[in-house]
Amino acid sequence: xxxxxxxxxxxxxxxxxxxxxxxxxxxxxxxxxxxxxxxxxxxxxxxxxxxxxxxxxxxxxxxxxxxxxxxxxxxxxxxxxxxxxxxxxxxxxxxxxxxxxxxxxxxxxxxxxxxxxxxxxxxxxxxxxxxxxxxxxxxxxxxxxxxxxxxxxxxxxxxxxxxxxxxxxxxxxxxxxxxxxxxxxxxxxxxxxxxxxxxxxxxxxxxxxxxxxxxxxxxxxxxxxxxxxxxxxxxxxxxxxxxxxxxxxxxxxxxxxxxxxxxxxxxxxxxxxxxxxxxxxxxxxxxxxxxxxxxxxxxxxxxxxxxxxxxxxxxxxxxxxx
Length: 322
Ligand code: MTE
Fold this sequence. Notes:
alpha+beta; Sulfite Oxidase, Chain A, domain 2; five-stranded mixed sheet; 9 helices; binds ligand MTE
């Protein structure tokens, strides 16, 4: 995601990266026999990581059932899905999450649930996600930066997770928060966003059958760069709503703070539904670059999920509630 302040992407890599990480990375690149000239695109994506998945943790295969959720478009390669990422807690370059996210501890993992609900508290991952009922959902993934992918996620409907906690009638919205540990996430030392990363949905959006809590992709557990051990997937919204590595869920009565909206409300709305006719102030949203394809594609209303979700926004002026 492009940001206005500070201009992290304009800095030399050694300014953005802590010294220890910078040296480690240089050593790694050297060991790979690659000149230390910044990121080199081996598969065509600017800044794509260089075999850095070698540093990724070992991930388990997951059992799951297939579903009818499939746009019938070519799936983006596992390599691209796991090495071209946004996870600013590990740096703002697309290759940073694959380089550094393995430093995050994901086991054990606990999730705090609070606010307007009957069964709040602190839960282990296994108490929140029923790993015996995982399903695969192949969804389009559209970043606000105008690139897109098609990803076979594994997980459970978000509604099935939220219902466990017994949200009450006062719960009009739900807020999610990402893990934040400066010892493991060097990007937190940069004031790119007001950390920790927070996101939110209106309750009816969160309970919509398409909203998904993912714990895996391509048949395996999530790699850290994709938001292990659990991240949100809301396929009709821009990717930044898909908050990663969730440690807290809060049921609230008022629209919650969300990180990108708070950083620049003119550019990043709370709703952030994919909409080719509402332009970002600094670029067009009417087309997108599908990673792995040569020609740009037209962006689809609600990312192609209009039939399913348009009724959530009936009567709302979508250029105002963007
Ligand atoms: N979640 C956290 N905690 N931090 C982030 O920087 N980036 C968002 C979203 N979730 C982000 C995040 C953005 S801008 C996008 S497009 C998607 O994650 C990218 O998900 P992916 O890397 O799995 O493709």
